[in-house]
Design brief:
Distance between the termini: 50 Å
Largest sheet: 5 strands, mixed, barrel
Helix content: 40-55%
Radius of gyration: 23 Å
CATH topology of the largest domain: Hypothetical protein af1432
Order of helices and strands: EEEHEEHHHHHEEHHH
Strand content: 15-25%
Oligomer: single chain
Mean pLDDT: 91
Number of helices: 9
């Protein structure tokens, strides 16, 4: 007789034929199919350990309206083997609020320790000596809600650092590269460049949604992370007493970190050009390592 895992500890990889399944999963497929005995739903469940095809044969019309592809769902049923493949037959399926579930249960996560990366972020922020830039970074670092979003967000969907914690990992990497660049190029304004590296992608904290898969928030779709980043920074910059010149230089760096097109096709400062290149270096290396050469 199969064991009955609880919703808190069940993983797809641990399931076998004859097991009861009761837990919370990502629904990544939902299709209505025509069978010999009538319609049924073909579903695919997923968590970080793997995926499991599932079928719904009873109460099809009622359950069809209870969830959608892309939902986080709570299910109950049993697992059996069909044509050498494990398949679940579900009797209960209902959508749950994705905000009530740790997205790490379903979505890929950074391999690096996030607490360690958090420490690096704080250490890099502390190295900025300029009162205005340093004050801005302190406000951001002390914002607990922002920090939670900073360590949760990816950098992209399907591109580089496309996993939980990817934003924090990328931010630290670009700032570390900037430190080295400033050693070799002492003419760079180190405080400006380091600050720009730490905040250039901060708009990513509001760009993404988290459920069965990564998605984009409405504001993320409409504005994009660059505009969102400038909006996030504007009020803390005023509180930090950042003067107009420093703010303009920092905003220019954020605005052009994917290229100078948004500034008339020309970088106006060496720091903006440096951030663009450093950002590209880290993103390209990571993209190549994760997806292979020729996919960057």
């Amino acid at each position: 007789m199969g064991h009955v895992p609880t919703a808190s500890d069940i993983t797809i990889a641990a399931l076998g034929a004859g097991d009861r399944v009761a837990g919370i999963f990502a629904c990544v497929r939902k299709d209505r199919m025509a069978g010999r005995s009538g319609p049924y739903l073909a579903v695919e469940l997923r968590d970080r350990s793997g995926s499991l095809p599932a079928r719904i044969f009873k109460d099809v019309d009622r359950l069809e309206g209870a969830f959608q592809r892309g939902d986080v769902v709570q299910v109950a049923g049993s697992v059996d083997r069909y044509r050498d493949e494990l398949v679940a037959e579900l009797t209960v399926v209902r959508a749950v609020d994705p905000e009530s579930v740790d997205p790490a249960r379903f979505l890929p996560s950074a391999y690096r320790d996030l607490d360690e990366l958090d420490g690096f972020l704080e250490g890099l922020a502390d190295e900025v000596g300029d009162p205005g830039f340093g004050g801005l970074l302190r406000i951001l670092v002390e914002d607990e809600a922002l920090r939670r979003s900073w360590r949760r967000a990816p950098c992209s969907i399907g591109g580089h650092h496309a996993y939980l914690g990817g934003l924090l990992e990328h931010t630290v990497a670009v700032a570390a590269l900037a430190q080295e660049a400033c050693v070799h190029h002492p003419g760079l304004n180190r405080d400006l460049l380091l600050t720009a590296c730490l905040v250039h992608d901060i708009g990513r904290t509001r760009e993404f949604s988290y459920g069965a898969e990564f998605g984009r928030t409405e504001v993320g779709e409409l504005l994009g992370h660059v505009e969102l980043g400038l909006r996030i920074l504007a009020e803390p910059a005023k509180r930090a007493g950042l003067d107009e010149q420093r703010w303009s230089h920092l905003a220019h760096c954020v605005l052009t970190h994917h290229g100078a097109e948004r500034a008339g096709g020309k970088f106006r400062t060496a720091e903006a050009a440096a951030l663009y290149r450093l950002n590209t270096v880290d993103a390209t290396i990571k993209q190549s390592l994760e997806h292979g050469l020729g996919n960057g």
